[in-house]
Specification:
Structural class: alpha/beta
Strand order of the largest sheet: 3-2-1-7
Largest sheet: 4 strands, parallel
Radius of gyration: 15 Å
Order of helices and strands: HEHEHEEEEE
Number of strands: 7
Helix content: 10-25%
Shape: globular
Oligomer: single chain
Strand content: 35-45%
Length: 122
């Protein structure tokens, strides 16, 4: 993701395709998602393993990304990235939140698998 953002910020031409998947919930993930939209992606989805309240990204940045059209799917974690013919595939595991822990916070645990086909994964 950092290389993608570096190239974007330098004004280099970066091909993103129509559907971009971004994995993570921090500031770099949010910035990457917003950059992908600005580069012409029709749909940008962030996949995050916890809920919105646990996202480490600044809440203002998250809200701005949502207002710009970035989608966020909460409680999913990537399990596999692969190519099938000419299509990029992303398999996700649906997560559930466990009991709160005073040190680590609320820990997610796997529930079931989901499959998607983005054109780019960051």
């Amino acid at each position: 993701m950092l290389e993608f953002l570096r190239r974007f910020n330098l004004g280099e031409k970066v091909q993103v395709g129509n559907r971009v998947g971004v994995i993570g919930g921090g500031n770099v993930a949010i910035d990457s998602a917003r950059a992908a939209l600005r580069l012409g992606a029709k749909r940008v989805v962030i996949f995050y393993r916890r809920t919105k309240s646990e996202m480490p990204a600044q809440s203002e940045e998250v809200e701005q990304a949502l207002e710009e059209g970035v989608e966020v799917i909460f409680l999913v974690a990537p399990s596999k990235v692969f190519r099938e013919k000419d299509n990029l595939k992303l398999e996700l595991i649906r997560m559930e939140l466990g009991e709160p822990d005073p040190v680590a916070g609320v820990a997610p645990f796997p529930s079931k698998e989901v499959s998607l086909s983005p054109s780019l994964i960051l």
